[in-house]
Write a structure and sequence with these properties.
- With about 200 residues, this protein is of the alpha/beta class.
- Helix content is about 50%, strand content about 15%.
- The protein folds into two domains: about 1-130, Rossmann fold; about 150-195, no CATH class.
- The protein has helices at about 10-20, 35-40, 60-70, 85-95, 110-145, 170-175, 185-195; strands spanning about 1-5, 25-30, 50, 75-80, 100-105, 160, 165.
- Helix 2 (about 35-40) runs parallel beside helix 3.
């Protein structure tokens, strides 16, 4: 997975990058807030970002606010890293839109743990999105089946969406994942039996 690392202090950036790469992540690193914001808006944007609070251009908390104001970016997982450790700073960072907060100097094990939490959240979001798409597709099939379905009064074929007439069982198999078990109702069974008397 691709991770954005935005840190203006070279030594910190290199240490953070080493930790993230050791976790098997693809790291896109930059040293200022403007570049970080551009990368988060790109088509190939990372889903997780580790942002320093104080940076040239844009601060990390401002990037968080911008991300949360753009619907297409709201799913991003944002971790603020800063030397500001007072409770009011933590609250301000979280209210700006950060998902998590890490104070400097940080413990590398704690950073890994927090990044892993972010990765789990992103995985759950992806799974939820996939389930929602499945439900939307199922609902579209249900809506189609609830509407009027033209049926021939003679041969009992139905007209599908492509204006093609097909057997009822084929239509339902295609649109509702229904398979038919062929059988005779009691009336038809009795009628057929009388033919052989």
């Amino acid at each position: 997975m691709k991770v954005l690392l935005a840190e203006d202090e070279l030594a910190s950036r290199e240490m953070l990058e080493t930790i993230l790469r050791r976790m098997g992540l693809e790291v896109v690193a930059c040293g200022d807030g403007e570049t970080a914001w551009e990368l988060l808006q790109s088509a190939q944007r990372p889903s997780l970002a580790v942002l320093d609070w104080r940076m040239p251009g844009l601060d990390g908390d401002e990037i968080c606010r911008r991300v949360r104001s753009v619907p297409a970016l709201r799913h991003l997982y944002l971790i603020l890293v800063t030397g500001l450790s007072q409770p009011e700073h933590i609250v301000a960072g979280l209210e700006a839109g950060a998902n998590d907060y890490l104070t400097k100097p940080f413990n590398p094990v704690e950073l890994e743990a927090r990044v892993k939490v972010g990765l789990r959240v992103l995985q759950l979001q992806d799974e939820l999105i996939a389930r929602i798409r499945e439900l939307e597709l199922a609902m579209s099939h249900v809506k189609r089946l609830q509407g009027l379905l033209p049926i021939c009064v003679m041969c009992k074929k139905v007209r599908n969406d492509d204006n093609y007439w097909q057997q009822v069982d084929a239509y339902f198999a295609e649109h509702a994942n229904v398979r038919f078990n062929r059988a005779l109702c009691p009336e038809c069974a009795a009628r057929e039996a009388r033919k052989f008397e």
